[in-house]
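Subject: sequence -> structure tokens, single chain

Hey, anyone have a minute? Need the predicted structure for the following. Not urgent.
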Amino acid sequence: MENSVSSKCLTCGSTDIVRNITVSQSVEVGSTGLEYRTAVMLIGTEALLADLCTQCGTVLRLHVKNPDRKWITKS
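Reply:
Had a minute. Here:
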């Protein structure tokens, strides 16, 4: 799947892309990521990862490492 990700920045055309940077926030707020249910009905959080162009600062993509989860959605 990694090969399908663009190797060029759509904003500036640079190929200087840093992949899989962890998106984080301060400890007192809690976890950043997408919530999912575990086998015992607990709630887990899958970390968000970002691909970043180091030339212009554009975030090219947000994604998770393990997309095979029972994601919690709100309607």
